[in-house]
Request: fold
Amino acid sequence: MRNLIFLIVFFTGSVLHAQQQYTWEEYGLKFTLANDFAEEVNNLDEFSAAGDGMYFSIFPFRDETINESDITSYTIQIAKSLNLQQIDDVDVLDINKFKGGYVEGYLEGMKVFLMGLIDPNSDTNFFVLITFMDQDKVATDEAIRMVKSIRKM
Reply:
């Protein structure tokens, strides 16, 4: 009986955290999204996918004048242009050889996570936009996993 309970817990946990690998060939990026995500756009201007009440997008931009010291303020400006109703958190980050900044806020009941990433080896940089329903703890954890998975090939 104990083995049966272990197997049920193990397989349930595995299904809840099942992931799929995506590659954005045009920019040499790899990232992982939950299995319930489906790719919606994959071209030179955008990569977007949607899951169960959650949306993930990456947008490239070229600007060799922006560096790691001002990407956070640039990200805040972009967040303001989205007319977020509230901004909860702003910080810098260093993740998988990218330098960046992020803004967490809200818009019409949705939590919005906007991250600017500087590629130190290129003049192509990225904005990552993740949205999901506020108070969704599973989505918050998934957003963190998605962000941590972004890397160069």
Q: What stands out?
A: The first strand starts at residue 19 and ends at 24.
